[in-house]
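pls read this stuff:
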Amino acid sequence: MIRRSADRPVTVTVAAAVLAAQGLLVLTLGGYVAVETLIGEPTDTITSLAVAGFGLLAGAGLLWVAYGLWRVLRWSRGPAVVTQIFVLPVAVTLIQSGQYGYGVPLVAAAAVALVTVLAPTSTRALMGEDGRPGT
């Protein structure tokens, strides 16, 4: 069921915004790798293109999930949660390697996305009144 923006809780709006920002960042980085691969001299062209393709697909996927949250579509909750669960170890690894400028904002974004998408108001909006699908 698609709901009007007036029916969208603030928590779902915030989660959609965080996922959209992550999607745009990943899409941009994938595009950057693709351009650098094509105009530069990569050590391994096939691997570079694969990384670029993965970045472009992952970014597009995050934007698709953000759109699903924005439209308050039930299917978008699961991918949003799983994505953030995968982001957390990456962010922690960045912090442990001393790259605080990347790791800390990534942890913060993942935490905000998880808290907002799993909030009771988000659960009611995305899953139904009692939190179970099909209601």
In short: The mean pLDDT is 91. The two ends are 11 Å apart (CA to CA). The chain has five helices and no strands. The helical segments are 10-39, 45-70, 77-96, 100-117, 120-127.
